[in-house]
Write a structure and sequence with these properties.
Blueprint lengths: L9 H4 L19 H13 L10 E4 L4 E2 L8 E2 L3 E5 L14 E2 H4 L5 E5 L5 H4 L13 H8 L4 E6 L4 E8 L2 E5 L5 E4 L4 E10 L2 E9 L9 H42 L8
Parallel strand pairs: 2-5, 6-7
Antiparallel strand pairs: 1-4, 2-3, 4-6, 7-8, 8-9, 10-11, 11-12
Length: 265
């Protein structure tokens, strides 16, 4: 009787992150400045309190490999976050790409920034031939089953949110500040403000009380202002103490002029 080897997992037999392409210099549509700044702001403000920082991976414009049957197929989300996975590949190396069959965890949320050339694919409005790779919408909805998918049009400042309901994306209402994601205790909304010197509406994460999550630079500025305020309060206290001392000295001088020793009990 022949003895067969046990089947091997996709992680063991399929290409790893090091085997797969991480960039394509011939790929059209290189990111513009907004596609650099907006994902950066999302990364800096995505801080779920219920996950340790070393168990959160966020990326932008990174190859996302999604289908072990077609290991060369990938999508390149403008921004995505994965929860419960090491920040480092195999807990030791920065990722060249995100390979789902190697990682074992799919993204929790994806954000696409619309541009004229990608709008229809991002919104699931394109058709494909049977032998063609699926669209981003199909990958996120049907293959990776990403729970939350956001699409933002910076030309119209329109934010659309979709949530996975059973097996299909359903539009989610953007109410008030944005959309609250209970699983991470964060909301995603539109913030009017200046980031990197650019004043406009930006996508940004906020907390349970509606406060926008501060970036490290903003935290440093807040700490600088707090330190300055404490310094000013200390200086005011010093000046008040000095004034009290001067008034006491003046009173003592007047008492001495009257022949009274102010030092006697």
């Amino acid at each position: 009787m022949y003895q067969t080897d046990p089947p091997r997992s996709p992680k063991e037999v399929l290409p790893t992150m090091y085997d797969l392409k991480s960039e394509d210099p011939e790929e059209p549509g290189l990111p513009d400045e907004f596609h650099d700044l907006q994902p950066e702001l999302l990364r800096l403000t995505f801080r779920p309190a219920n996950y340790p920082a070393d168990q959160i991976f966020v990326a932008s414009d990174l190859n996302l490999y999604y289908d072990p049957r077609h290991p060369q197929w990938y999508k390149r989300p403008d921004w995505f976050a994965v929860l419960g996975v090491s920040r480092l590949y195999e807990q030791q190396d920065l990722r060249l790409s995100y390979v789902t069959w190697q990682e074992g965890v799919n993204p929790f949320v994806v954000v696409e920034l619309l541009s004229p050339g990608t709008e229809k694919e991002d919104l699931g409005q394109t058709l494909r031939e049977v032998n063609q790779a699926p669209t981003k919408w199909e990958v996120y909805e049907q293959i990776l089953r990403v729970p939350y998918y956001f699409v933002f049009n910076r030309y119209t400042d329109e934010l659309q949110a979709f949530g996975l309901v059973t097996s299909r994306y359903q539009a989610l209402p953007i109410e008030g500040q944005g959309l609250w994601l209970e699983e991470v205790q964060l909301g995603l909304g539109l913030w009017q403000g200046s980031y990197q010197g650019i004043e406009r509406l930006w996508l940004r994460w906020y907390d349970a009380v509606g406060a926008w999550i501060a970036t490290p630079a903003e935290l440093a500025e807040q700490e600088r202002q707090r330190t300055e305020q404490e310094r000013q309060r200390a200086e005011q206290e010093r000046q008040r103490a000095e004034q009290e001392h001067q008034r006491a000295e003046q009173l003592a001088a007047r008492l001495r002029a009257l022949g009274i020793d102010p030092d006697l009990p």
